[in-house]
Amino acid sequence: EVQLVESGGGLVQPGGSLRLSCAASGFTFSSYSMNWVRQAPGKGLEWVSYISSSSSTIYYADSVKGRFTISRDNAKNSLYLQMNSLRAEDTAVYYCARDRPRIPDAFDIWGQGTMVTVSS
Amino acid sequence: AIRMTQSPSSFSASTGDRVTITCRASQGISSYLAWYQQKPGKAPKLLIYAASTLQSGVPSRFSGSGSGTDFTLTISCLQSEDFATYYCQQYYSYPPYTFGQGTKLEIK
């Protein structure tokens, strides 16, 4: 079964750091570009970051640029999001999502999400 | 960034109804548009990509159309499991990929 499973969310104080992980299974992870998408409580979807299959191309939303770092380990079938200098407005469910094979393309597989709460 | 605007933001319908949701892009995006369905507490699910191509496993009562700036998602005969929030997304010009604000479809 094709699957993405996020972990690493939790409660963190403003200014703190957190590292999210996304474990992929059931497909050739190294062949696909990946994304992080977040959803604040009661709000819509916001794309956060993109990484190509070989990590050669990386993009960030302006709202997280300079604070978040996306990375992947194809040998471990894992995607990561290092989040530093966290703010209250970063509070959200964070989803990892797979790109369909074409570039660019829609997001065809999503994880179940991991909740990040930034609060003192 | 390209802005995506959905209409309506919410509406009520009955099982068996035919419903249409509209998505407008602030500039032309060719056919680089996807539609997602999200149920409460769940991850989004891809329904349609390339504006009109049905994702594998999605019921044929869902269809998409449009190109350029104006797009529609149509559900031909609403089923109880279709009551959810729907999002459009453009992937023509990035970063950033951008989503519409969502359309919440509720039971009348």
Write down how many β-strands of chain B occur, each being a DSSP E stretch of 2 or more residues. 11
Q: Report how far apart the termini of chain A are.
A: 39 Å
Low-confidence stretches of chain A: none
Rg value of chain A: 13 Å
Mean pLDDT of chain A: 97
Mass-distribution shape of chain A = globular
What characteristic shape of chain B results from the CA principal axes?
globular
Structural class of chain B: mainly beta
Number of helices of chain B: 0
Average pLDDT rating of chain B: 97
Poorly predicted segments of chain B:
none
Question: What percent of residues of chain B are in strands?
Answer: over 45%
In helices, the fraction of residues of chain A equals under 10%
Most extensive chain contact? A-B, 23 and 25 residues
Q: What's the number of helices of chain A?
A: 0
As a percent range, the share of helical residues of chain B equals under 10%
Query: Helix/strand/pairing class of chain A, anyone?
Result: mainly beta
Q: What distance lies between the first and last C-alpha atoms of chain B, to the nearest angstrom?
A: 36 Å
Radius of gyration of chain B: 13 Å
What letter string, H or E per element, gives the SSE order of chain B?
Answer: EEEEEEEEEEE
Summarize this structure as a short list of keywords or feature phrases.
heterodimer, A: 120 residues, mainly beta, 7-stranded mixed beta sheet, 4-stranded antiparallel beta sheet, 0% helix, B: 108 residues, 11 strands, 49% strand
Task: Tell me what the structure shows.
The complex is a heterodimer of chains A (120) and B (108). Chain A is mostly beta strands. Helix content of chain A is 0%, strand content 51%. Chain A is built from no helices and 11 strands. In chain A, strands 2, 4, 5, 6, 9, 10 and 11 form a 7-stranded mixed sheet that branches. Chain A has a 4-stranded antiparallel sheet with strand order 1-3-8-7, with no helix packed on it. In chain A, strand 5 (45-51) and strand 6 form a beta hairpin. Chain A is globular and about 40 Å long. In chain A, 41% of the residues are buried. Chain B is mostly beta strands. Chain B is 0% helix and 49% strand. Chain B is built from no helices and 11 strands. Chain B has strands spanning 4-7, 10-13, 19-25, 33-38, 45-49, 53-54, 62-67, 70-75, 85-90, 98-99, 103-107. In chain B, strands 2, 4, 5, 6, 9, 10 and 11 form a 7-stranded mixed sheet that branches. The N and C termini of chain B lie far apart (36 Å). In chain B, 35% of the residues are buried. The model of chain B has no long low-confidence stretch (mean pLDDT 97). The interface between A and B is medium-sized, with 23 and 25 residues.
